[in-house]
């Protein structure tokens, strides 16, 4: 699905990945979180940084992912076709939501019409995952998926909630119950 290796991690794993063969990085940080020192190991033109909260609904006091963020991510993903990429690392705070959504968006941009397979790949790369639904919804619109990316995400969330009810409960407690299927 990609001509390069794709990895996903959280901040606690970042230094281990940056000390490996990573050539490109997508970094998604909380708005006030300092940039990790290790990112300087990656050439500036080979990394992109986003700053927004892991929000899935607009909330006062939180910075949610915006259309401009997703447009910037897709544009950067498209530019990778003109670059020598060996290993792309995508990270956020925990490596569960924003980073897995960003990975899904990059996969969707590179593999139109393969929405269900995209989330299967995310699951293989990062078994503990819960992609951010707001990011995916924005990407569905931007990439012209006609709801297919959103539908694939809902099916994926249902599988993850069934397989990993403790993660679903954490998601529910953090104000994201709308992402949990009604019958679970």
Descriptive key words:
184 residues; alpha/beta; Protein-Tyrosine Phosphatase, Chain A; four-stranded parallel sheet; globular
Overall description:
- The chain is of the alpha/beta class and 184 residues long.
- The protein contains seven helices and four strands, in the order βαββαβααααα.
- The chain has helices at 11-18, 67-79, 98-110, 115-125, 133-142, 148-163, 165-176; strands at residues 5-9, 24-29, 47-51, 87-91.
- Strands 1-4-2-3 form a four-stranded parallel beta sheet.
- Helix 4 (115-125) runs parallel beside helix 6 and helix 6 (148-163) crosses helix 7 (165-176).
- The longest helix has 16 residues, at 148-163.
Strand content: 5-15%
What is the residue-averaged pLDDT? 96
Tell me the strand order in the biggest sheet. 1-4-2-3
Class from helix and strand fractions: alpha/beta
The CATH architecture is Alpha-Beta Complex
**CATH homologous superfamily label:** Protein tyrosine phosphatase superfamily
CATH class designation: Alpha Beta
Helical residues, percent: 40-55%
Assembly type: single chain
CATH topology group: Protein-Tyrosine Phosphatase, Chain A
Q: How many extended strands? A: 4
Give a nutshell description of this structure:
With 184 residues, the protein is α/β, with parallel strands linked by helices. It has helices at residues 11-18, 67-79, 98-110, 115-125, 133-142, 148-163, 165-176; strands at 5-9, 24-29, 47-51, 87-91. The chain has 7 helices and 4 strands, in the order βαββαβααααα.
């Amino acid at each position: 699905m990609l001509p390069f290796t794709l990895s996903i991690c959280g901040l606690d794993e970042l230094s281990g990945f940056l000390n490996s063969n990573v050539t490109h990085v997508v970094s998604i940080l909380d708005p006030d979180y300092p940039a990790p020192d290790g990112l300087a190991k990656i050439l500036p033109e080979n990394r992109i940084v986003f700053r927004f909260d892991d929000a899935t609904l607009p909330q006062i006091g939180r910075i949610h992912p915006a259309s401009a963020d997703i447009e910037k991510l897709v544009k950067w993903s498209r530019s990778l076709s003109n670059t020598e990429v060996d290993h792309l690392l995508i990270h956020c705070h925990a490596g569960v939501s924003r980073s897995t959504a960003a990975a899904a968006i990059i996969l969707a941009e590179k593999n139109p019409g393969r929405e269900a397979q995209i989330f299967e790949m995310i699951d293989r790369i990062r078994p503990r995952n819960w992609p951010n639904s707001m990011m995916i919804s924005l990407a569905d619109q931007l990439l012209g998926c006609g709801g297919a990316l959103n539908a694939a995400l809902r099916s994926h969330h249902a599988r993850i909630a069934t397989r990993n009810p403790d993660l679903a409960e954490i998601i529910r407690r953090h104000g994201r119950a709308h992402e949990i299927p009604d019958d679970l």
